[in-house]
Structures are given as structure tokens and as C-alpha cells.
Amino acid sequence: MEKRPRSFYLLAAFFALFLVFLYGPTFTIAILSFQGPQGGLTFPMRGVSLHWFRELFQQQAVGDIWGSFGRSFVLGVMVMVATVVISVMGGLAFRKRFPGSGVVFYLIVTSLVIPSILISLGVGLIFSQAGLKVHWSTSGFGSQLTWTLPFGLLIMFAVFNRFDKSFEEAARDQGANAWQTIWSVVLPIIAPMLIGVALFGFTLSYDEFARTLLTAGSYNTLPLEIYGMTTNVTTPVIFALGTLTTVFSFLIIGVFLLTVIVANKRRARRGSDAGKGLV
User: Fold this and answer.
1) CATH code assigned to 63-237+252-268
2) Where are the domains of the chain?
3) Which of 121, 137, 193, 218 has a CA 20 to 30 Å removed from the CA of 187?
4) Does the pLDDT of residue 129 top 50, yes or no?
């Protein structure tokens, strides 16, 4: 067996340290959330129990945890749907060059490099000056789209640049109109990528802080609520909340991955059935 070079072990050690740096804080919070009733915010732990998880579901003296969670979830779904729909429409539009397409593309990319807090400030000022109410479902929704849409559009640009147009031509040869071609041919083929864009849209919205800070109005989303709790909550209940939100995030990712697997299996089964039909 060939001996591995010393650089392999150095890279492995560096990667291990990177994983500790990446996931260490999350594991630390998870461990501290299982402290006993007398537990504090630091080590050493004082007992082990589910006390702070039970406490999380009781009426809190400070904040509106579950209300903010509901707002973040609803806002995430709104952003997710808008991101998917607009990204697909944008990807279809950019399949052909049109006047100003280059300018539009660079404007989309520029949104990613502008400081998020300036986006939040600008959107909040626009709504205020226009006499519109600054609210998480309107101004917050708009500011978050400036963050999720560029990612969705860039993904769709890459997808459609590699899309085989012969599938559409075959559908049109069979008498399908433009809408039928998109609905029955294009969308099923790019379905896994659409699920990826949806996951991007939801997760980026769910934990977005800076672009929501000045656009949420008088009602906090969950990231804003957690930030507010760090200044006045002195018990591990905040760690319990962090653990639950992390578990929820992984569940969402798992649901999306399961959806991709099921969609791929169905597409493979349909392809197999179609092949048998030709034989």
C-alpha cells in the first residue's frame, strides 16, 4: 500500500479544525441547552435535563418567540415562492439576448455586493417616503428578495445555458404550444434545480437579519427576536431556542433533499417506462 504523504495529514488536520470552527458553536449551544434548572449561560454545566425546552413553551416575560417564528416562517414561504417564480421567468427571458440584458445582469449581481444594512435602510426609507407602512410582510419581503433573487437567477441562468433545446423542439413537433412545452417538458426536467432555488429562498430568508433590521416595522422576525433576547435573557432558554431552530433548519433541508430524491426516482421510472413502451 502506497504511503500517504505528510501533506495529506496536514490537510486532514486543517479540515478537522475547520469543521470544529464551523460546527463547534452550534454544538456548544446545543449542549448548554440541556442544563438543569439551576444552569447558566456558561460551562460547567449544572445538571442535565429538558427543563429549558419545557420553559421555552411557557409564557415568556420578554419577547414574542412563537409569534416571531410564525412571521419568519410565513415570510420565508413568501420569499421562496417569489424567488422560484421570478427566477424561472428571468432564466427563460435571458435565453435570448435583448436590449439592456447586460446592464440588467450586472445590476442583479451588484445587489449581492451592496452592504445588506444599506439595502435595509434604503428600502425602509422608500416605504416611509412613499407613505407606505414599514412592515415585515411588505418592506421586509421586498428587502429580502434583493438577497434571494440574485442567487435564484444565477442558478437559473446556469441551468438554461446547459438546457438541451431539442426536448422543446420535440414537444412542439408533437403539437404542444409554448405553455404546454414549459409546463410538461421544461419544468419537470429542471425540477431538482427548482427545489434547490426554493431551498435557497427559504433558508436565506428564514435567518436573514441585516436586510430585515430596518424593514420589519414593529414586529420582529425570529433572527431579530433572538438578537433582542441576547440583551435581556440570562437563562439557557435562549440556547434551547437556538437548538430548536437549528433542528428545524436541518428538517427543512432534509425535506427538500427528500423531495429531490423522490422527483429523480419518478423521472427515472417514467424514462424507464417510456423506453419499455418503445420496445
Assistant:
1) 1.10.3720.10
2) 22-58, 63-237+252-268
3) 137
4) yes
State the average pLDDT for the chain: 86
Beta carbons of 52 and 39 less than 8 angstroms apart: yes
Using only the alpha carbons of the chain, give its radius of gyration.
24
The three cell numbers of residue 256 are 427538500
Going by C-alpha positions, the residue among 163, 155, 157 that lies closest to residue 182 is 163
pLDDT, residue 271, reads: 59
Identify the bridge partners of residue 35 per DSSP, sorted by sequence position: 48
pLDDT band at 278 (very low <50, low <70, confident <90, very high): very low
pTM: 0.84
Contacts of residue 231, Cβ cutoff 8 Å, sequence gap at least 6: none
**For 90-119, how does the pLDDT look when each residue is reduced to its tens digit (9 = 90+)?**
999 888 888 888 888 888 888 888 889 999
> Rounded to an integer, what distance in angstroms lies between the CA atom of residue 44 and that of residue 271?
58
Tell me the C-alpha distance between 161 and 157, whole Å: 6
